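hey
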């Protein structure tokens, strides 16, 4: 299995295929979450980011931020993708802060009905390769 080293975490590759790369997020030897690039569109150079840190006591320690930055580095530098996007509930303040911190920008919003027949707002966010490289590797731009 392939691993990517972050500053605080390690991403351990689980199930790669042509349209999806899926990693376990490891803190030491403990699996604290999962992160993936899904719906990889090689022709347009886009993919959807999905992340889940399982235990809420692990939130707000920088593990998600580190995992996202590590995977974006892989997406833009190694995989040569051009854009990574995601969907996030507007009510998920912690996730929104994390995505803002790594450089994602809001591009749109959706409204949908939940299973309890209440309306929920979803933000569409994205980061492109040029913005990521400018912020992470200013000498490369």
């Amino acid at each position: 299995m392939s691993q990517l080293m972050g500053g605080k975490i390690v991403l351990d590759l689980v199930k790669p295929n042509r349209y999806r790369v899926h990693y376990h997020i490891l803190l030491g030897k403990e699996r604290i979450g999962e992160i993936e690039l899904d719906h990889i569109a090689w022709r347009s150079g886009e993919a959807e980011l999905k992340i889940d840190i399982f235990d809420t006591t692990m939130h707000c320690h920088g593990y998600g931020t580190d995992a996202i930055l590590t995977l974006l580095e892989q997406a833009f530098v190694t995989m040569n993708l051009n854009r990574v996007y995601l969907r996030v509930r507007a009510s998920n303040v912690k996730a929104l802060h994390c995505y803002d911190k790594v450089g994602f920008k809001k591009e749109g919003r959706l409204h949908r009905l939940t299973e309890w027949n209440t309306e929920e707002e979803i933000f569409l966010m994205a980061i492109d390769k040029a913005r990521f490289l400018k912020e992470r590797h200013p000498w490369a731009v």
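DSSP finds three helices and eight strands in the chain. The chain has a mean pLDDT of 90.
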